[in-house]
Amino acid sequence: MSILIGVGVVATVSVFYLGRKGWHAFHKMVGITPGVLIYQDSNAPLLLTSLNWQQLDLNKKHLGALSDKQLRQLQHIDKKVANYHNYQNELEAQNVTSAINEQQFVLHKMLHIRLPEMLASHYHLANINVSNHVSNHTKNGQKQTKAGRLLQEVLDSIEQRLDGLLERMEEQHLQELRVMKNYIHSHDD
């Protein structure tokens, strides 16, 4: 009887051990580390402490007055600016100098000078409205709404300009590929 119980315990332990090893081997095979994966809700509100900016130099204090949608849009803008800067750095590494056109100059000024100024103005307006909350509640609410709309229009404008610049960059590379393809085909004969 004790032999049967011993065999049962050993069998149970070995099945558990082999099952766990197999489970870990399966996860390792598909590229997942068991127990490490943390679910991140993409719709959860952004925390200012967890935001990391790749290219934009923004005052975190000024970001506190922004809506979650505006913070997400700023993150998208930052990612696009990082892609553009990586492209420029690759050109410099290849010793290719590209002339800066007016659109690039205006976009650079908007991103690095005007955007921080607008965020600071929006922040100060929000703080003034909080301190004057008791008097003229409707007037302050209207000003806050108008400031939010103006800031949203600026963010949309910056993102549209950045998208146009990235599209032009992609079109330029496509044109270079077409030229190279035509050159190769012309020498095939």
Can you give a write-up of this model?
This protein has 189 residues and is mainly alpha-helical. It is built from five helices and no strands. The longest helix is centred in the C-terminal third of the chain and has 50 residues, at 137-186. The radius of gyration is 28 Å and the shape is flat.
The helix content, as a percent range, equals: over 70%
Low-confidence stretches: none
> Per DSSP, what share of the residues sits in E-state strands of 2 or more residues?
under 5%
The secondary structure category is mainly alpha
- Provide a count of the helices: 5
Radius of gyration: 28 Å
- Per DSSP E runs of 2 or more residues, the count of β-strands stands at 0
Mean pLDDT: 81
* Biggest pleated-sheet summary: none
End-to-end span in angstroms?
88 Å
Order of helices and strands: HHHHH
| Overall 3D shape | flat
Quaternary arrangement of the chains shown? single chain
Defining traits:
189 residues, single chain, 0% strand, flat, 5 helices, mainly alpha
How is the topology of this model organized?
Elements (H helix, E strand, L loop, with lengths): L1 H28 L30 H4 L4 H26 L8 H30 L5 H50 L3
Helix pairs in contact: 3-5, 4-5
